[in-house]
Design a protein that fits this description.
The structure is a homodimer of 228-residue chains. With 228 residues, chain A is mostly helical. Helices cover 56% and strands 0% of the residues of chain A. The radius of gyration of chain A is 22 Å and the shape is flat. The interface between A and B is large, with 77 and 77 residues. Chain A binds a DNA duplex (19 and 19 nucleotides) through loops. Chains A, B: GO terms for molecular function: DNA-binding transcription factor activity; transcription cis-regulatory region binding.
Chain lengths: 228, 228
DNA sequence: ACCTGAACACCGTTCAAGT
DNA sequence: ACCTGAACACCGTTCAAGT
């Protein structure tokens, strides 16, 4: 065929097909050859649009980040950082659990993908506006990410086998009911997420700088070390 | 050569060589052929000891779980669940950051690997002994796992590029200092972990059932739904 | 610029054959 | 039981050739 008058491919089409393949069959099922076949082209064509396969998967992950709702950081009272952080975390987790197979890629870090950066930017900006010192705002963005991606990645309950004999009481004295976890996977993971999120927000609320502690810490102003 | 009088391989030798390869060159560098070459055998020999490559990587991950210190759950005052949970989390994270390349495998879930199960068993048992209702103890084990593996997996700072021009202020109004994060990776990730761990423990302390709430919740005793 | 087929250097896994 | 080489059906990526 050689070069067609109108390009057969685009980054968007490739990312769309790759997303569908990841969702349907998992990360391991994505090969450049299979992906190209679904797009009706030959394997090497993809390399006109992406440098390599990893870049395609990064773009798939970033498309998920792009779906995370960030409006709560603009619209709400900037002083109510707790509610905004809560609603964002729930929205973020929902976006990830809709596409669980790409989470390992997404969890590799936010720093090089535009939508992931937009998320980091929004959280950091909102926390600073709410009165958190910049160094703490950086930490909050990071630790929330840890918890959210960790919960989307490592389904705790999914890891257990639905087999009463799998967990020998001699080896695991407290796991007598563990085989029941497999059945109630979603409920348990969601309960753990909610309990953890509440604990995190309660704990952060307790660390929120009052006027007194802010005055004690103040004076130096924002330094180079406060990031990002 | 065919069959030697003394086996050339063992599961332990294979796991050891695989661990070294993962640590030195990353997950992608592990192929059955390279691994076999380092062990002085041909590729298919591995299949006499493991069903497939995934099982080898699972065993590598489990070897890391086996290094997590669990003694705090036996030795300390069972009422001091907070200190035990803290020390365990620090020990767990330390084990993971020593072998960051295997964390994606480990994060897939604890349910099928013996050392991972031993960890889940110890945490669950200690929380129940400390007075947490079983359903909450399950959640605590899960949410702590989320946070710890999330923090080991997705280094927040590592994701940023050390390039002042990489973060356009038009796109990311609050990320003016983001390129500085790359330099101070370890410090930032550790600070975020510590801040988050403290927040989680503070928040859980606030949720710890007092005698009053325990009495209110009591009566039914432990039910099938409390897992695990 | 954007596609193609051919080619290179790999993969994971199966299997019959050897001791 | 435990290793081997050969073989199968794949990979990601490069590159010259085509329009």
């Amino acid at each position: 065929m050689a070069r067609p008058r109108k390009p057969l491919l685009s980054r968007e089409r490739i990312v769309g097909a790759a997303s569908a393949l990841v969702d349907a069959e998992g990360l391991d099922a994505v090969s450049t050859r299979r992906l190209a076949a679904q797009l009706g082209v030959s394997g090497p064509s993809l390399y006109n649009h992406f440098r390599n396969k990893d870049e395609i998967l990064d773009a798939v992950a970033d498309a998920v980040s792009a779906k995370v709702d960030l409006s709560m950081f603009d619209e709400s009272d900037p002083r109510d950082w707790r509610t905004a952080l809560h609603d964002w975390a729930v929205s973020y987790r929902a976006a990830l659990t809709e596409h669980p197979n790409i989470v390992p890629v997404l969890a590799r870090g936010p720093g090089r993908r535009p939508a992931g950066l937009r998320v980091a930017d929004a959280v950091f900006g909102a926390m600073v506006r709410a009165g958190w010192p910049p160094a703490q705002a950086t930490r909050i963005g990071a630790l929330m990410r840890y918890f959210i991606t960790g919960s989307a990645l490592g389904s705790f309950a999914r890891g257990f086998v639905d087999d009463e004999t799998a967990y020998d009481p001699g080896d695991y004295p407290h796991l007598g009911q563990a085989h029941l976890l497999a059945d109630r996977q979603e409920e348990i993971d969601e309960g753990a997420f909610e309990t953890g999120l509440r604990a995190l927000l309660d704990g952060l609320t307790a660390q929120y700088p009052t006027a007194a502690t802010a005055a004690r810490a103040g004076g130096a102003g924002r330094s180079r070390a406060d990031g990002p």
